[in-house]
Structures are given as C-alpha cells and as structure tokens.
C-alpha cells in the first residue's frame, strides 16, 4: 500500500527570490500543522509550459504565478474563472485530475479584503475612486471596485493611451484623466489607490502633490516595501485612513491555500508579523 502524497505548492516567477509567498504559506502550514510544502520556483518564460506540465506529476496540487508569467499562464490554462478572463491574467493555478490546470486571479479579492480590514467603515457602493496606474494590478483593482459597486472611477496613468485603453475596456464608469490632473482629483475621491511601483524601495518617488488629501478619505498603496510610503504618510497627516499594501498580498493568498491544502487560513496580526520578520 502506498502512502498518500504530501501536498506541494509553490510560486513560479523570474526572478522569484524576493517573493514573500513561501514565508506566508509556510506560516499557515506550521500554524495548522498541515502536511505539505510551499516552494519558490525560478522558471524562465521559455520553460513555463514544460514546468506546468511536469509539476502535477511531482505531487503539486497547484501554484501561484507572478511576474512575468501571469498572462502566459492564463493562455495555457484548461479553464479560467470569469474574473481571470476579465483581468487578462492569472495568479492562482490549480491542477486538475484529468490533466491541465484551472486559472484564477485572486488579486481583486485580496484587495477588497485588505480594504475591508484596514478601513472597516468604508463602503464602496456609490463611491468615487481615483486609481493611479494602468498595469496588471490596476486591472484587478478596477474589476474588483466595479464589482463592489463603485459609481465612478477616475484613472490616471503616465502613459495616457494605456489609461484610455482600460477606460474603453471597463466601460462608462471609468474616466481617464491626464496624469497632471491627478493631484487636483484627490480632493473629490472617497478612495485613492496607487497601483504603480512609484514610491517603492529602489523606484522613483510618486510625483503627486498631496495637498488635496483630507479627512474622511481612504488611501491605499499596493506598494509594501516600504510599508509606510510617502503617499500613506501624507494621508495620515491629512487625517485620512491609510491602508498599506501588505494586506492585499496576504489576503490574495488565502483562496489558493484553501484549494491546495484543504483549510481556509486566517489573515491576522500573527501572519503579518511572520511575513515581516
């Protein structure tokens, strides 16, 4: 009689050494005393298809994919969730018994859960949001906010054509505005979301005047290195509620962990401490 396989999962990226996912999944596995391992897997783009075909034979139940594999993984999937198709990228893959894998994108779910935890008084229904950036993270945020009932989305990007493309794709609730007008647009936004890498350690600062920030707003930055970006510091100084970017990373991981290891994990202070240790 053969012993049951120990479940395996991991994160595929190029590079992948910076990923915090092994630390957070490892914390959950230890906390709940579950058998299993979660591994960082460095995979070059030209090897992605071959690696994804081989992983289930090695006992992998699924995996996360990060830059630069999110779009390619979606294209290779046997099936995909509606939200992954809307966003145009996948971050969570689950291998199927009959072969192939199902693709999902949990970034928007993680974003909304982080927002609910960090700003429990905020209600997206009918709100006006200002979103900075027009990359993959912005697509997930737009999809999540529109699904949650946000009435008006102002979208600013340094390359105007990319913002216009998202406006055309996501519909009339989205208005693309020039990057130069984003500072003034802060005043009328109930929610401000930075989806760019500006302000991240090693990246240029976010070139945005913050004078129009005020109390009653919620401001969140998807950057989590550093945790307290100048945007969040400015929001706190103005009396707004600031939500850091680590919560989205933690919450987006929970659905995959549940699928692969069979238990819905908690996102709490102990997890944050373990990931930041």
Kindly report the CATH topology of the largest domain. Rossmann fold
The portion of residues assigned to helices is 25-40%
Q: Can you identify the CATH class of the largest domain?
A: Alpha Beta
Number of domains: 2
Q: Helical region count?
A: 11
Rg: 19 Å
Percent of residues in beta strands? Answer: 15-25%
Q: Report the uncertain regions.
A: none
CATH architecture verdict of the largest domain: 3-Layer(aba) Sandwich
Order of helices and strands: EHEHEHEHEEHEHEHEHEEHEHH
Order of strands side by side in the largest beta sheet?
Answer: 2-1-3-5-6-4
CATH homologous superfamily designation of the largest domain: NAD(P)-binding Rossmann-like Domain
Q: What is the residue-averaged pLDDT?
A: 96
